[in-house]
Write a structure and sequence with these properties.
The chain has about 140 residues and is an alpha+beta fold. The protein has helices spanning about 5-10, 55-60, 65-75, 125-140; strands at about 20, 25-30, 40-45, 80-85, 100-105. A five-stranded antiparallel beta sheet has the order 1-2-3-5-4, covered by helices on one side. It binds adenosine monophosphate (AMP) and zinc ion. Adenosine monophosphate binds next to loops.
């Protein structure tokens, strides 16, 4: 049997509060929710992180995302929603089967505290443009 907890959930070997399933994806309630309606969407194919997706796998996976988001929006009427996805332990990934978090947001005290501090002073428009040049070149080749 696979050692991946999310593969075990897909197989039904580990229980989950499933909300949706199709040929390519499986969605269920996060067991340690941050806010009301915190859901995880996972590909049925074991893909560890964003780097491992083929374009086709990615298209099939993300096709389900708006459907999940809209149902959560209609049902819970949140003030907003964060989609979060961690790649690698350093970035906070704790389960190494790709998963997209849907975190409905209600107010400033709802328990989820995203945020980052801009380094805008270091990354001047000139520096940003040079970074863009390098990345663009890589993407074109
Ligand atoms: P991450 O830190 O982005 O890798 O998130 C992993 C998420 O998986 C966490 O929010 C956990 O609460 C959730 N999780 C881990 N095991 C289970 C499980 N058996 N059922 C539902 N959610 C799980
Ligand atoms: Zn897996």
């Amino acid at each position: 049997m696979t050692s991946c907890i999310f593969c075990q959930i897909i197989e039904g070997a580990v229980p989950s509060a499933k909300i949706y399933e199709d040929e390519h994806v499986y969605a269920f309630m996060d067991i340690m929710p941050v806010t009301k309606g915190h859901v995880l969407l996972i590909p049925k194919k074991h893909v560890e992180n964003i780097y491992d997706f083929t374009e086709e796998d990615a298209a099939q996976f993300f096709a389900a995302a708006p459907k999940i988001a809209n149902v959560l929006k209609e049902h819970f009427r949140p003030a907003g929603m964060n989609l979060l996805q961690n790649n690698g332990g350093f970035a906070g990934q704790s389960v190494f089967h790709f998963h997209l978090h849907f975190i409905p947001r209600y107010d400033q005290t709802d328990g989820f505290q995203p945020g980052w501090k801009t380094k805008q002073e270091a990354f001047t428009p000139d520096v940003i443009a040079k970074l863009a040049d390098v990345i663009r070149e890589k993407l074109e080749n």
